[in-house]
Amino acid sequence: MITARGVTSLVGPFLFVLALGAIAVAARGQSTSVQRTVLASSVPRSRSLGGGGGSSCPLTLPEQIKSVKAFAEMMPAFRHPRCSNCHGGVNPFVEPAIGKHRAGAMNPRPEGCQECHDQLPGWDVPGPPMFFAGRSDEAICMQVKEFGGTGPDFVEHIRHDHNGIQFIAAGFKGDRALDKQSLADYDLVIEKPPGTQEQLTEKARDWVKAMGGEFVGSAECGCVTPKIELSMSSEWKGTDGSKTVTAKVKATVELTADSSGVVYTGHAPLQHVRYTAPGLGCRVVMSPEGGVLEVKEARFDVADDKRMTISLAVAPTTSGGTMTYFCPKASPITVPLMPWAGQWSFLHLPDLIGHAFHFDEFDAASGTAFGGGERLLVGHKDVSRTTKREGLTFTAKTTFEFWSLGLKAK
Questions:
Q1: Strands (DSSP E) along 23-91, which ranges?
Q2: Residue 36 has what DSSP assignment?
Q3: 3-class DSSP state for residue 243?
Q4: What pTM, to 2 d.p., does this model score?
Q5: Would strands 256-257 and 352-353 be described as parallel, antiparallel, or unpaired?
Q6: What secondary structure does DSSP assign to 320-386, as a single string?
Q7: Distances from the Cα of 381 to the Cα of 49, 173, 249, 271, 378, angstroms
Q8: Which of 3, 8, 114, 371 is most buried (most C-beta within 10 Å)?
Q9: Model confidence over 84-105: pLDDT tens digits?
Q10: Which of 152, 159, 177, 186 is nearest to 86 (CA)?
Q11: For 163-174, how does the pLDDT look when each residue is reduced to its tens digit (9 = 90+)?
């Protein structure tokens, strides 16, 4: 008859892995000064972005990321009250409590604004189609593409308002086209947007240049942060040469970009695929549970030669569960199941920086791996780690893949 003591003695060497989890947790609390270099990985230019919702875009993922980042450089000026107030932030034709216009509700006739804003002949506000106050960066960007004409037209608009009424120049003066007495009467001060009109013009050029010198594709193209998904598949094995314990887990993380558009984070539960342990003449039932793969940072940057660099920092949280032995003529025996996340963390101590495990040098996929439709494989990395301890050999093989899921505005 096999007893609990017998099972423990037979698989005892593998229960050692439970202790490794504690070692890994302790080690993760220590920071390291290891310096890592992110190497550029080439992304085929023939693969462009696209996807559902009717969006189409001839830009590659690096070009799209670079374009979104370039447009974001203009947002501090666009978000400043001297810009956003005219573009929907203030409505001078309704009651002040609603429209936020200091001088009250005005008669919507062309000369009405000129009575106060007399430092710029022709002072007026654009119509609702040009309002962008309260909209997301992506929405404003798509609005510019819709109403800005061509890429060069937009640059000329920023540079000198097409030689028309110089609203943008007045905005950068910061005085609302009011004289000193009017500013004092309404308790206002001069507030200038960040930078200069010349600098904003250069940023507009950079955005259009990032798209190839012209507005291209659908409204989302050059404006919308690509939706990125990380898939991880990892197989772990511990063996003493005669007996082997294995585990396989997966995770699929939908990532969320920060305001820069190049840094993504997210988390998702571990999916426990397969666990094995020595049967010892018994039937073994595995009941793994718990664990989360947290993406601390996935960074997508673009070099001057349009190659993309990818770096990844992850932190899996502990997982566990039980394994139960059903042996002939014996009561079921349940013992703790090795915590995969703890073992993985132990094996990957060389990759630990601070409180996360860092990986770079991702390769671009090639050939049929890109497939068709919305999903586009943009980064791939295989990682293998092996260590030996007290007569046992532990191995972890992990594959990370980044997928672009097409373009869809928020």
A1: 40-41
A2: -
A3: coil
A4: 0.70
A5: unpaired
A6: EEEEEEE-TTS--EEEEPP-HHHHHHHHTGGGEETTEEEE--PBPP-GGGG-SSS-EEEEEEEEEEE
A7: 21, 51, 16, 20, 11
A8: 114
A9: 988 988 888 788 778 788 777 7
A10: 177
A11: 899 999 999 999
